[in-house]
Amino acid sequence: MKKGILVFSSLMAASFSASSWSEEINYYVIGQQAQPFQIEESGANHSGIVTDIVKEIFTGSDYELVYHTFPFNRMISQLEAGGENNWVTYGSPNWGGVQADNLSTEPIYMVEHVLVTGASGEFEYTGIDSLKGKGVILLHGFDYPELEPYIARGDIEEIRVKDYQAAFRVASRMAGEAAFVEMASRIHYNMDKLGLDREQYEIQSFSNVIAEYPIHLALQPDMSPAIQDYINNRLAEIKTNGKLAQIVEQY
Questions:
Q1: Closest CA to 81 of 11, 123, 28, 117
Q2: CA distance 56 to 50
Q3: Which of left, alpha, beta for 45 (phi over 0: left; psi -120 to 50: alpha)?
Q4: Beta-carbon neighbour count of residue 152 at 10 Å?
Q5: 66 three-class SS
Q6: Tens place of pLDDT for every residue, the chain, 251 residues?
Q7: Which of 3, 117, 143, 172 is the most exposed place for a label (fewest CB within 10 A)?
Q8: CA–CA separation, 54 vs 49, rounded Å?
Q9: Proportion of the chain in helix, strand, coil states, percent, rounded to 5
Q10: Which value, to the nearest 10 degrees, does the dihedral of the CA atoms of residues 214, 219, 222, 224 take?
């Protein structure tokens, strides 16, 4: 009798273990440079537009979300080397490379780029020729193919900075002589975060050089079709029920 109880208990334990098992989804986060798409504090307390959408997709599922936070260039190197199995981050068809190889069916956000200049300088932007003889302030690790020919010819000077605080500081100090190029959503988020006086800056659309484009979830190129179908179906669902728009509006 005791042997029968032992066998039954073992079967129950195995059944429970199998039913409670979950497959890992490895979510890659860019540290310190991707707000408001990905917001984190020393690799913890994750939030942001993309992060909240990914959380919503997998909430209540049999998948376990595992976070990996790296500086941008290191994250790209990791993903180009293969990354952890079933990896997810965000990307765009405009970016090329590993962040464009396999994208979600539905976009999650439309991106607009702007120019930020110090208000104390005289600078009227009408087109790319307005930047000739001036500088463009760019964050380390982020490249803009639309600007590269002008930079290569020496028509525009490239000024690289490590973070948003430095970018706004240089734009203010070089008012009229340099402009910070960045996504509008990141500009507004980081101005608020840094407590900057918006009246000290001019923000102008840069869409006639960098056209608006979509952001998608970027998926491991050889991710299993079943997981990809789950992600795409859930993304379509939260877009239809308004949850996706609700997440975006928070930021």
A1: 28
A2: 10
A3: left
A4: 10
A5: strand
A6: 444 444 444 444 444 443 345 799 999 999 988 899 999 998 899 999 999 999 999 999 999 999 999 999 899 999 999 999 999 999 999 998 999 999 999 999 999 999 999 999 888 899 999 999 999 999 988 889 999 999 999 999 999 999 999 999 999 999 999 999 999 999 999 999 999 999 999 999 999 999 999 999 999 999 999 999 999 999 999 999 999 999 999 98
A7: 3
A8: 9
A9: 40, 25, 35
A10: -110
CB neighbours of 251 closer than 8 A, spacing ≥ 6?
A: 36, 48, 49, 185, 189
* Beta strand residue intervals within the chain, DSSP E: 23-30, 39-41, 44-47, 63-70, 87-91, 109-111, 113-118, 135-139, 157-161, 178-183, 201-205, 213-219
Give me 10's structure tokens.
């073992």
Looking at the chain, how many residues does it have? 251
49 CB burial (10 A radius; 0-12, 13-18, 19+): buried
Q: Measure the CA–CA gap between 24 and 43, rounded to whole angstroms.
A: 18
